[in-house]
Design brief:
Blueprint: E1 2-5, H1 11-19, E2 23-25, H2 34-40, E3 45-48, H3 56-61, E4 67-70, H4 80-85, E5 89-92, H5 98-113, H6 116-126, H7 131-137, E6 148-152, H8 156-167, E7 171-175, E8 181-187, E9 193-199, H9 204-210, E10 213-216, H10 228-233, E11 238-242, H11 251-259, E12 263-268, H12 279-282, E13 287-289, H13 298-319
Parallel strand pairs: 1-2, 1-3, 3-4, 4-5, 6-7, 6-10, 10-11, 11-12, 12-13
Antiparallel strand pairs: 8-9
Helix pairs in contact: 1-13, 5-8
Length: about 325
């Protein structure tokens, strides 16, 4: 079996595949040439992340392809149902990067609540000349403990965000389309653990009016989850973080509500016009920004590589 890891794979994942007698090609093939490369090199498995697109034409024109793997959760760059109809195995790693994304959510929350995103911009420029003025301007900060955390989405990432909020002493609310209950377990360094039963709500109005901090952790959507009507129902001074997908929050409306002070600050790791975000977003001092790096930690990539390798090895044993 031959694997093309077109968007890369961790060393641990690569080694696990090689130990199972599977050849790994670490070529980075441009989208326009992927089909020819797969066919010319008799590739059995195509592994991608977000860069390479696996659409119907690729699936049709690569009959020898047996497995399509996505390193991560979202599958919007793969025509999954069509691939399955054509007899391909489609795999992903839905939980491997959840902790990394959740930690980024709180990295942004802490940055916003303590003005770190803005002070890091200004200190190199004005720290020597306006130190006391900046100190005064950044003194209206907040602790997260005791505040209400609203999490939109209750998948693996949403659950990790909830667990971190609980560990910080936050009041937690979850919004889903249909109410559901999950038992979440917090594990500690000394082997102790504590479990919490969390039930989500589908009452959007009640959810929005109470939340001090809102984290969006949903799959890609066809319409905005957060738009003008939702912003209007939020608490004044709310903080919002989107690490889900560009297009779940209306970025134009977001800027308007930041300017009106309804939104005290927001963070975006994903953008509607990625990889070319709007300049108005990039220059806004109330925004904490990162370039779609939610799952980009060494730890997450190790987990993703190993999880993909394990699934490929299992399928290989099944089909041979």
């Amino acid at each position: 079996m031959k694997v093309l890891a077109n968007d890369g794979i961790s060393k641990a994942g690569e080694q696990a595949l090689k130990d199972a007698g599977i050849e790994v090609l670490n070529n980075r093939v441009a989208q326009d040439h992927v089909i020819n490369f797969i066919n010319d090199n008799h590739v059995d498995v195509l592994l991608v992340r977000s860069a390479t697109k696996v659409r119907q034409n690729l699936i049709d024109e690569c009959p020898g392809l047996k497995i399509i793997g996505r390193g991560g959760i979202g599958m919007d760059n793969i025509d999954v149902e069509y691939a399955i109809e054509k007899g391909k195995y489609v795999i992903n790693t839905p939980t491997a990067s959840s902790r990394s994304v959740a930690e980024l959510v709180f990295g942004h929350f802490f940055s916003l609540a303590r003005f770190l995103h803005e002070s890091n911009r200004l200190m190199p420029l004005e720290g020597e000349t306006h130190f006391n003025a900046m100190k005064k301007s950044f003194n209206n900060a907040y602790e997260l403990s005791g505040k209400t955390l609203g999490v939109i989405g209750f998948g693996s990432i949403g659950q990790e965000v909830v667990k971190m909020g609980i560990s910080l002493g936050m009041n937690v609310k979850v919004l889903t389309r249909k109410p559901r209950t999950e038992v979440l377990t917090l594990s500690f360094f000394n082997g102790q653990s504590v479990s919490f039963e969390i039930t989500s709500t589908n009452d959007t109005d009640a959810f929005l009016k109470d939340a001090d901090f809102i984290s969006i952790n949903t799959p890609q959507t066809n319409e905005y989850i957060i738009d003008t009507p939702q912003f209007e129902k939020m608490k004044d001074g709310v903080y919002i973080v989107n690490t889900a997908r560009g297009g779940v929050i209306n970025e134009v409306s977001l800027i308007d509500f930041i300017e009106s002070k309804k939104v005290a600050g927001a963070a975006l790791d994903v953008f509607e016009k990625e990889p070319n975000p709007e300049v108005l977003l990039l220059m806004n001092p109330a925004l904490s920004l990162s370039p779609h790096v939610g799952g980009n930690t060494v730890d997450a990539q190790e987990k993703i590589g190993i999880e993909l390798a394990e699934q490929i090895i299992k399928i290989k044993e099944t089909i041979e």
